[in-house]
């Protein structure tokens, strides 16, 4: 029976929420049709009202909660409902960790039921303090009358929410953003207008070194000139003693991308210094770095555990980015080879290896599957392969080459349980899944990472 026959927009009905969806919404079933309900939690009984009908599912809002989840709480953030940056603040942290493990289980049950039935999916590794963890904020700047706002756009709209204190940001990033916004307002510096595309300052980007306490402020502008520059710099410098670098990035394009191609230093250092475990990094304004460095250490330690290195293994770090995972493993490996399609990332990976005195790591620009095939032809078989692919998962050609080469261990770090489960359909032809360890990198959002340890079948 199709949905149009059983549901219409505006219709109200009681609904029991069975599970959490991958975007943090509650999922229930009405006459065997899937209904996604924003703000509802598993185990709740609600009165739902249909807001939208698609071919394979319907969306609904909560009219009232007839039976609440024991994990339900009042979201502490004042703009939580509007913002959309977080999806799970209305759920206790213990509840979030349970549900994130369940999201991994659901993906396995959908795509690889046999794996779901036999695999040890461990409890989600959470944070001791799941607040103020993000080391970087990118807040858009707009003006209404004389007031300058900095914040995020309300979900699905072009209304900018002025955010003074974002609860998932490191506190210094909020403090610096607010003070910079006020300085722009006080000095009457032209602010970008999203409708007319005129004006100057588009975005305030602030990143702080969690371990080193160094902070960088980057103003993204539509052109090079910056009126009242010296006065503005003096005001920003005084905001917090942690500020060691102020930069300007010029983005002339009309896209929603944050950064343009040109960046120059206005005051202080070009980079800030940050440390992860024993590794150290110098980060420029546009450099990629993990947003939650505290949990990144736990994630990388889980990868190291799964790799089971003894000092004699050759390791391939596919989709290596700036090389952090390979460098994390290097001390216990005989050789590291990494590859990535982004040339700048490979340059950074080489520089990072050199800076740490790691001479047995080599990096190559290009597709993982191309290099893997090339090395295999020359007789090279790595003992361990580690991957941390984008949300789309592994390239099918890469999976085929892994099935041919047959490394002893395969460590799959995933940021999308659905694509992990789909890729396991193929990988489990020659591998057993020893365990999956979910890791919570982004508390209060629906994201879940997982480290999956695969061992070659005997």
TrEMBL record:
<keyword id="KW-0489">Methyltransferase</keyword>
<keyword id="KW-0949">S-adenosyl-L-methionine</keyword>
<keyword id="KW-0411">Iron-sulfur</keyword>
<feature type="binding site">
    <location>
        <position position="290"/>
    </location>
    <ligand>
        <name>S-adenosyl-L-methionine</name>
    </ligand>
</feature>
<feature type="binding site">
    <location>
        <position position="340"/>
    </location>
    <ligand>
        <name>S-adenosyl-L-methionine</name>
    </ligand>
</feature>
<keyword id="KW-0004">4Fe-4S</keyword>
<dbReference type="InterPro" id="IPR030391">
    <property type="entry name" value="MeTrfase_TrmA_CS"/>
</dbReference>
<dbReference type="InterPro" id="IPR012340">
    <property type="entry name" value="NA-bd_OB-fold"/>
</dbReference>
<dbReference type="GO" id="GO:0070475">
    <property type="term" value="P:rRNA base methylation"/>
</dbReference>
<dbReference type="InterPro" id="IPR029063">
    <property type="entry name" value="SAM-dependent_MTases_sf"/>
</dbReference>
<feature type="binding site">
    <location>
        <position position="319"/>
    </location>
    <ligand>
        <name>S-adenosyl-L-methionine</name>
    </ligand>
</feature>
<dbReference type="Pfam" id="PF05958">
    <property type="entry name" value="tRNA_U5-meth_tr"/>
</dbReference>
<dbReference type="GO" id="GO:0051539">
    <property type="term" value="F:4 iron, 4 sulfur cluster binding"/>
</dbReference>
<comment type="similarity">
    <text>Belongs to the class I-like SAM-binding methyltransferase superfamily. RNA M5U methyltransferase family.</text>
</comment>
<feature type="domain" description="TRAM">
    <location>
        <begin position="6"/>
        <end position="64"/>
    </location>
</feature>
<feature type="binding site">
    <location>
        <position position="388"/>
    </location>
    <ligand>
        <name>S-adenosyl-L-methionine</name>
    </ligand>
</feature>
<dbReference type="InterPro" id="IPR030390">
    <property type="entry name" value="MeTrfase_TrmA_AS"/>
</dbReference>
<protein>
    <submittedName>
        <fullName>23S rRNA (Uracil-5-)-methyltransferase RumA</fullName>
    </submittedName>
</protein>
<dbReference type="InterPro" id="IPR010280">
    <property type="entry name" value="U5_MeTrfase_fam"/>
</dbReference>
<feature type="active site" description="Nucleophile">
    <location>
        <position position="415"/>
    </location>
</feature>
<feature type="active site">
    <location>
        <position position="415"/>
    </location>
</feature>
<dbReference type="InterPro" id="IPR002792">
    <property type="entry name" value="TRAM_dom"/>
</dbReference>
<dbReference type="Pfam" id="PF01938">
    <property type="entry name" value="TRAM"/>
</dbReference>
<keyword id="KW-0479">Metal-binding</keyword>
<keyword id="KW-0408">Iron</keyword>
<dbReference type="GO" id="GO:0070041">
    <property type="term" value="F:rRNA (uridine-C5-)-methyltransferase activity"/>
</dbReference>
<keyword id="KW-0808">Transferase</keyword>
